[in-house]
Specification:
187 residues, TF_Znf, Zf-TFIIB domain-containing protein
Length: 187
């Protein structure tokens, strides 16, 4: 079985957390997770499943280095079909790949650890859903909007705006506050 990112390198047996059997690339450090091994592992993990998170504070602290192979097209090491990519949001996006023919997954170096930290490793299929990808795009847009607001207003004023927005968003009559502000600026 060859590495999906470099067909010249043979995969070797390996394991990930809690005895998930994988095929590991000794060169790029990526891991192929077959459907059968993943499903068997999931069944053994049922009592320990974590609640998946799109983003949380602990994930921001991970020292994840994006693999230089993340943007490379890849072939399934089992059936040679092209792998489909799903974006995962974490500081910046990375991609987990899946073979839509045989169902196996490819994680580049360090990606499995991020998936674990986010609680996504026990339900990788959800990353390939339309709902998940829509949420990723929404978060990316919100992050860009937040950065632009901070750039235009400065750190101090932007923080006050974000704080007020959160207060109004959580207040039962917050829409009155928003309407008041809009009237003030439409003069």
């Amino acid at each position: 079985m060859q590495c999906p990112k470099d067909q010249r390198v043979s995969l070797v047996d390996g394991t990930l957390s809690d005895k998930l059997t994988v095929k590991h690339c000794p060169d790029c450090q990526g891991n192929w997770i077959s459907t059968d091994n993943y499903e068997a592992w999931i069944l053994s993990q049922t009592p320990k499943l974590a609640e998946p998170k799109l983003m949380d504070e602990s994930a921001k602290e991970l020292n994840f280095v994006l693999s230089p192979n993340d943007n490379r097209a890849a072939l399934c090491p089992e059936c040679q079909h092209y792998l489909t990519r799903a974006r995962v949001f974490y500081k910046r996006c990375f991609y987990v790949e899946r073979c839509m023919h045989c169902g196996g997954f490819w994680c580049d170096k360090g990606e499995w650890e991020v998936l674990e930290k986010l609680g996504l490793h026990t339900n990788i299929e959800q990353l390939f859903s339309h709902e998940w990808q829509s949420r990723v795009r929404e978060l990316e847009y919100a992050e860009r909007e937040r950065e632009a607001t901070t750039q235009k207003l400065g750190d101090k004023v932007a923080e006050m705006v974000f704080e007020l927005a959160e207060i109004l968003e959580n207040h039962p009559n917050g829409d009155f506050g928003v309407a008041y502000l809009m009237r003030r600026f439409n003069k």
